[in-house]
Amino acid sequence: MSLKKKFLEKKIECPRCYVPLKRKEVDVFGPNVFIDLCPKCHGLWLDRGELEKLVKDKKLSDYLTKDLGTQSKSKLVCPRCGGLMDIESADEVEVDVCLTCHGVWLDRGELDELKRKSKDGFKGDDMEKAVERWEEYAKKSRKSFFKRLMG
Ligand SMILES: [Zn+2]
Ligand SMILES: [Zn+2]
Asked: 18 lies in a domain?
């Protein structure tokens, strides 16, 4: 079994209620997607790339899972990799996104809200994204500055 497959097949727990999530196969265009559902709070875990397949909107899913900045405003811990998570929002819909593996935690009903947003032609807030891109850039250049200093 490949490492990646092992990583994805590991049993994971709900970041809110700590019960094991249940795998569920979802029919989409192309290879089916396996999502992880919480039987208690009906939240839902999506690994990197799965949001795009479910919502069928690259712009919206990129908006939520790319250029995340460096702050972690979410109190949740990523169920997949244990990394810090940040809150990203599409207007009033706020989702938790892992800064490390870029998986997404959706609370009950949020997937439908995102689908509705996509249908309404979600555009996103370029200003907000520019700020987060800048944070990432600043962090990277700080790192290389220290590298130069040390090396
Ligand atoms: Zn739960
Ligand atoms: Zn993660």
From this structure: yes
CA distance 134 to 147: 20
The bound ligand whose nearest atom lies closest to the alpha carbon of 19 is: 1
pTM of the predicted structure, to 2 decimals: 0.83
In the numeric block, which tokens belong to residue 86? 């940040």
What is the tally of structural domains in the chain? 1
- Among all bound ligands, the one having the nearest atom to the CA of 76 is 2
Could you tell me the residue range of the domain that residue 79 belongs to?
13-142
Question: What residues sit around ligand 1, an ion, with C-beta below 5 angstroms?
Answer: 14, 16-17, 38, 40-41, 43
How far is ligand 2, taken at its centre, from the CA of residue 135, in Å?
Answer: 19
What letter represents residue 106's amino acid? L
Average pLDDT over residues 120-138: 83
> Which pLDDT does position 1 carry in this prediction?
59
Does residue 139 surpass a pLDDT of 90?
A: no
Which of 110-114, 121-125, 141-145 shows the lowest mean pLDDT across its residues? 141-145
Residue 25: inside a domain: yes
